[in-house]
Amino acid sequence: MPRLNNYLSLVKFSHTIFAMPFALIGFFLGLTKESETFTWTLLVKVVLCMIFARTAAMAFNRYADRHIDEQNERTRQREIPGGILSASSVLLLVIISAGLFIGVTYTINSICFYLSPVALLVVLGYSYTKRFTWLCHVVLGIGLSLAPIGAYLAVTGQFNWTPLLFSLTVITWVSGFDIIYALQDESFDRSAKLYSMPSNFGKSTALRIARVLHISSAVFVISAGIYARFGLTYWIGALLFIGLLIFQHRLVRPTDLSRVNLAFFTTNGVASIVFAIFVIAELLLFR
Predict the structure, then answer these.
(1) What does the domain layout of the chain look like in residue ranges?
(2) CB of 141 within 8 A of CB of 175?
(3) What pLDDT, on a 0 to 100 scale, did the predictor assign at position 14?
(4) Distance from C-alpha of 161 to C-alpha of 149, rounded to nearest angstrom
(5) What is the rounded CA–CA span in Å between residue 124 and residue 59?
(6) Residues in CB range of 164: below 8 A, 6 or more apart
(7) Separation between Cα atoms, residue 59 and residue 1, nearest integer Å
(8) DSSP β-bridge partners for residue 253
(9) Bridge partners of 256?
(10) How far apart are CA 216 and CA 14, in angstroms?
């Protein structure tokens, strides 16, 4: 009988740490920029949307890739190929999570509700991109980048340039660290005729592309600070975020992938949390 922790492991619930802080940035940005009234109910709804959308996306990724995971030595012990969870139960989790996501957006406002199928199309569609394009990393980045825009829309019901700049930060940041993570499967992806930047361009070139993406992420962080006229607290957070981007590139070499997990999870998890703390502090204390 599958237990809750099996499903949490399936969807890598702890990895919610990557996008959730940026969703909170979008939420508090909407409150302060448009002088909206804070309510715990809306905050809980935004958090639930993040959890349900990400759960649907990760579960669908595991469902769609179950046969690929069986062939890859690194992934063959995952829940479906390892026999811990059935494919049908995982697909049911996808359907329930997607339905709950749409249901919660309906209670927020009309624009979030109307855009919810589009968001699901992006985050679920990512699972198939590795079969036909090495831009799969960018599609993943786009999926996670919906967090700050979506949270801002939940609060205000309208678009704004500042959350868009944070979304561009997320696209380039996530794309870059996903390329680093994909270095582990370069040989397998090539043999299985799957597309990724490491399998198409080699480890060295893929790492250079990741560096360019992370430089772009730093540019967007700086642009957001200048555009929104943020103060010192924001710039401290921005400096720490950029510093952690640099640090992860010192951990990984084409010939040494032993610290990929440290670069992928620990460094990026810390980067997103630290940056969000400073940005939200700037918004709440000095706006």
Answers:
(1) 4-286
(2) yes
(3) 67
(4) 10
(5) 9
(6) 149
(7) 18
(8) 256
(9) 253
(10) 26
Query: Which of 72-86, 173-187, 195-209, 252-266 is predicted least confidently?
Result: 252-266
Going from the C-alpha of 228 to that of each of 31, 62, 155, the distances in angstroms are 14, 39, 18
Task: Look over the chain and give the mean of its residue pLDDT values, rounded to a whole number.
Answer: 93
Residue 262, pLDDT > 70, answer yes
Question: CA nearest 173: which of 257, 260, 263, 97?
Answer: 263
The per-residue pLDDT for range 73-99, each reduced to its tens digit, is 999 999 999 999 999 999 999 999 999
Helices (H) then strands (E): counts for the chain: 14, 0
Q: Is 36 exposed, middle or buried (0-12, 13-18, 19+ CB in 10 A)?
A: middle
What would the pLDDT profile of 97-121 be if each residue is shown by its tens digit? Answer: 999 999 999 999 999 999 999 999 9
Asked whether the beta carbons of 213 and 175 are under 8 A apart, the reply is yes
Indicate the pLDDT class of residue 255, thresholds 50, 70 and 90: confident
pLDDT band at 64 (very low <50, low <70, confident <90, very high): very high
The HSE-up count of residue 251 (CA atoms within 13 Å, CB side) is 20
Amino acid making up residue 138 = V
Q: What is the CA radius of gyration of the chain?
A: 19
Q: Does domain 4-286 have CATH number 1.10.357.140?
A: yes
What is the per-residue DSSP string for 21-35? HHHHHHHHHHHHHTT
Which among 165, 116, 121 has a CA at the least distance from the CA of 145? 165
Contact 205, 214 (CB under 8 A): no
| Start-to-end Cα distance in the chain | 51
Nearest to 185 by CA among 26, 60, 76: 76
